[in-house]
Target: Aspartate-semialdehyde dehydrogenase
Amino acid sequence: MTRKPALAVVGATGAVGAVMLEILSQHENVWGEIRLLASPRSAGRVLAVRGEECEVLALGEETLGGVDVALFLVPAEVSARWAPVAVARGAVVVDSSAAFRLDPEVPLVVPEVNPHAARIRPRGIVASPHDTTLAMIPAVGALHAEFGLRELVVSSYQAVSGEGRDAVAALRSQLSLVAGTELGSTPGDVRRAVGEAGLGPFAAPLALNVMPWAGVPADDGWSSEELGLRDETRRILDLPALRVAATCVRVPVLTAHSLTVHARFEREVTVERAHEILATSPGVVLYDDPASGGFPTPADVVGTDPTWVGRVRRALDDPCALELFVCGDNLRKGAALNSAQIAEAIAAEFSR
Amino acid sequence: MTRKPALAVVGATGAVGAVMLEILSQHENVWGEIRLLASPRSAGRVLAVRGEECEVLALGEETLGGVDVALFLVPAEVSARWAPVAVARGAVVVDSSAAFRLDPEVPLVVPEVNPHAARIRPRGIVASPHDTTLAMIPAVGALHAEFGLRELVVSSYQAVSGEGRDAVAALRSQLSLVAGTELGSTPGDVRRAVGEAGLGPFAAPLALNVMPWAGVPADDGWSSEELGLRDETRRILDLPALRVAATCVRVPVLTAHSLTVHARFEREVTVERAHEILATSPGVVLYDDPASGGFPTPADVVGTDPTWVGRVRRALDDPCALELFVCGDNLRKGAALNSAQIAEAIAAEFSR
Ligand SMILES: NC(=O)c1ccc[n+]([C@@H]2O[C@H](COP(=O)([O-])OP(=O)(O)OC[C@H]3O[C@@H](n4cnc5c(N)ncnc54)[C@H](OP(=O)(O)O)[C@@H]3O)[C@@H](O)[C@H]2O)c1
Ligand SMILES: NC(=O)c1ccc[n+]([C@@H]2O[C@H](COP(=O)([O-])OP(=O)(O)OC[C@H]3O[C@@H](n4cnc5c(N)ncnc54)[C@H](OP(=O)(O)O)[C@@H]3O)[C@@H](O)[C@H]2O)c1
Model:
């Protein structure tokens, strides 16, 4: 028997961290030591993992020592600073932030789609895609393998937990204030109630509202998340010239992102064949019986692992295009689960 | 001086009817008598219009007599039955239901886009488009006039009031129950709370959820509202071969529909020119300064007349395509206002 590799969970106290501790407690126990790290603010807190109490340590040079694999679940600037330190101290890093997703020397990996890419990691770092990309890529990747993808037009319905625990707290307090009012549909009502609760990290109220923005401003009116969807999809599918047009919209849902996908392929598609592919692809669940109310919604999908796909239709004016509605838990497959899958594949290397 | 024409408001007690009474009280007073009709259930109720109390009468042969213009704001089956009766009794009907929207002998009219069409009405009926079509068509029509529209890929974020007053009541009670719970993001929580409140007219919970469905099942997995968007847009823009792919999604917003629009044109587009067009088109407001939080959201738009447009971007992989986010009040321009505008144009015929 070889020794089991040691794991560090950096950012164990965050929204993604909390789900990671659940996943580590549920999955097969491939790890030796599991060390929980966060900012000095959290040092001394006690969290449960694998049924045991575990004290949170402050992230630092020392606390990164003796670790084989480090899961980084922290803001991008923290990853940018500390992931190279973890590598220098001997760990392989799996990073869930945006810090390295477009670094050509860092593979961007979705185990169901491009698992091989994780083996070549010149910087000792593997990146996990953005939660919005992850919500669609297992389904889109499977269809690409059959039909050859040429173009995507994507619109998102993103849950607030994608912005972290502060965003969840903001929507909760907005909702309780809004529910306490008469909930009139006159213009002032929602604004007023939400004004008292505060916008949290958002530029507009989210209770009883939607907001066409996610991320930070990029060039020519695009948001960073819209460009990220394009760049990441191109990298993961190895289609550097793929046409992608995305609009990211935040909705008043706590957890689970949804997307509408218009996918144009090289070859003609049929709904029957698309159903077969989606029903048999790893990490994908087909749920497509709209006449009986059979379609995925965030309330169905939250807390589950796969990408759910429904509303599969062939475009009426283009025999090569499919319309889909996809839905996935942004904290599980969208973040913690994908990183855990990558880390487990790396752990398997240790026993070879 | 010619006499002012008499108006009947059929469905005065509904969600659209309530907004119609507001609009009739705010707009220039072009009407003589205004008669309020609804089902026998509402007969005897008293509603205010133009600052006066007015008793609701039951819809019937007699109560439709002596009317010049009849605004029908009732379910499609009621319009199908009674609009021809109103015409036979001498009225011009403006119908806001789906009953006649695809009838080749009934013009489908948006005054900012195809006002001329309202003059030719072989059946004596003019139809107003679906609220989702109306939320985008003033903006898309203006861009079409300049660039020549070839294709639309559209995703909707539809408010519950688009389904009428019962839908609004359902979301309100779902929200107050959900806000009373711990609002956990565990799968059961929302479902459980909503189970008690009831789904109303919907196939899934809408509090803290989104639902990829609007309308009734049509062929090949499409919903009636998705097909309606395609058929109506083709008719209004007189582009019978326009490529349209739509996915309709309901969101937990009380009033104001939003849509993402990917519009591909014959000619190359620029954001600058698109901005100029949108800023100067009737019935359209440009609100596009995302770096300072400048984009339309339902909370900004509810209670206002125009179609608001933001997030204008040229597709990165196609110089002929624009991305837009549009937002409009489904009860105003989406229903009552558009019908009122059509009726006012017809009223003007009476004074010529
Ligand atoms: N939420 C999602 O759906 C999602 C999906 C995909 C990717 N991601 C990415 O995953 C990362 C974590 O997201 P989240 O939603 O979990 O955020 P979050 O809820 O705000 O949690 C942030 C975590 O980072 C830790 N942290 C912050 N500053 C630190 C520092 N200077 N040193 C050490 N630890 C620090 C926090 O520790 P303290 O408790 O001590 O402050 C906390 O554990 C982000 O990069 C995010 O973009 C998130
Ligand atoms: N809501 C929107 O955003 C929207 C947008 C565009 C188009 N529309 C269309 O506009 C129409 C009205 O929609 P809504 O949302 O206002 O619906 P609603 O809130 O359910 O109101 C329905 C109205 O129709 C009346 N009605 C029902 N059955 C009747 C009958 N047998 N005889 C006479 N009156 C009858 C009701 O009167 P009682 O009070 O007496 O029952 C009520 O005034 C529908 O065709 C809808 O598709 C709605």
Summary: Chain A touches chain B through 75 residues (CB under 8 Å).
